[in-house]
Amino acid sequence: MSESSFDQFRRMMDAMEFETLPLFSRSHFSWHLKTDYVGRRLVYRPVSESTQDDARRMLERFRLSAGAVVLAETQTAGRGRAGRSWVSPPDVSLYFTLLMQPEPAALRSLAYLAPLAAALAVEEISAAAGRELRADLKWPNDVLIDGKKVAGALIETTEHEGRLLALIGVGINVNLDVEAYPEIVAIATSVKQALGFAVEREELLALFCNHFESLYEAAKGGDKAPFAAWRDRLVTLGSAVVASGAGTRVEGIAVDVAEDGALVIERAGGERVSVEAGDVTLRV
């Protein structure tokens, strides 16, 4: 017998630790939101296997429109690029999927707009707390603080009622105590760890939405400034890299990024190769 919606909700709520878990405040989030459409529809899930999968399932039932955000307090099967798992404990970070309906020509821009919006949001909330924090970017869509990953994005597409939809999955380590997770301590950090104190997740999500909508509308209108801002933050450029994916491996120096976001790698013999997707490792 399949689980009823009520039983599923009860199971999710039973999994929460209410003694230590202040639930995400919609009103606090809305107070800081300055968008026309991004984040105006917020679907909150106490527990989710993956907000990407939830967003797909909700398209029909909830008739989600562009700008809708599906947010989970915790994920049991959160994923990053290449199917890697994303550590997703409750109450400390942001795990969400933003639904967009881009024109096909604008689809590639989402891969750099999402991490750029996350970087700007992290810097803004830090500045509001009286601290300067620099967030760098690693191609294609990782956000770094002091060389360690603090956020990442995963872009997937689907079709619904003849529309091309983009599911922008974002994970931001907000108040995560990274030391509690030995499997990521060498490669990951959190905003709290970088600042030395916790910040409000609701404010950080609102700042992400504010920046993303502004960047997206500018890029959609032909403004090259968002692309240039993303490029300027790329620590990948000028570095020796190994790019892998789809059965290929390219080694060389990352010399540029094309307007569609592809990474340009110059091999030892001078040949330049454009890599549109995949994983990039910085060689040291």
What's a quick, concise take on this entry?
With 284 residues, this protein is an alpha+beta fold. Helices cover 29% and strands 28% of the residues.
Share of helical residues: 25-40%
Mean pLDDT: 87
Dominant shape: globular
Unreliable segments (pLDDT under 50, ≥5 consecutive)? 16-22, 79-83
- Listing every helix as H and every strand as E from the N terminus to the C terminus, the arrangement reads HHEHEEHEEEEHHHEEEEE
Regarding quaternary structure, what we see is single chain
* CATH architectural grouping of the largest domain: 2-Layer Sandwich
C-alpha-based Rg, rounded: 19 Å
Total separate domains: 2
Please name the defining characteristics of this protein.
284 residues, alpha+beta, BirA Bifunctional Protein, domain 2, SH3 type barrels, 2 domains, five-stranded antiparallel beta sheet, 7 helices, 12 strands, 28% strand
Topology:
Elements: H1 5-14, H2 26-32, E1 42-48, H3 51-62, E2 69-75, E3 94-100, H4 110-128, E4 136-138, E5 142-145, E6 148-160, E7 163-172, H5 191-195, H6 201-220, H7 225-233, E8 240-245, E9 248-257, E10 263-266, E11 272-275, E12 279-282
Parallel strand pairs: 1-2
Antiparallel strand pairs: 2-3, 3-7, 4-5, 5-6, 6-7, 8-9, 8-12, 9-10, 10-11
Helix pairs in contact: 2-6, 4-6, 4-7
Explain the overall architecture:
By secondary structure, this protein is α+β, with helices and mostly antiparallel strands. It folds into two domains: 5-231, 2-Layer Sandwich (BirA Bifunctional Protein, domain 2), CATH 3.30.930.10; 236-282, SH3 type barrels (Roll), CATH 2.30.30.100. It has helices at 5-14, 26-32, 51-62, 110-128, 191-195, 201-220, 225-233, and strands spanning 42-48, 69-75, 94-100, 136-138, 142-145, 148-160, 163-172, 240-245, 248-257, 263-266, 272-275, 279-282. The strands form two sheets. The protein has a seven-stranded mixed β-sheet with strand order 1-2-3-7-6-5-4. The chain has a five-stranded antiparallel β-sheet with strand order 11-10-9-8-12, with no helix packed on it. Strand 5 (142-145) and strand 6 (148-160) form a beta hairpin. Helix 4 (110-128) packs across helix 6 and helix 4 (110-128) packs across helix 7. The longest helix has 20 residues, at 201-220.
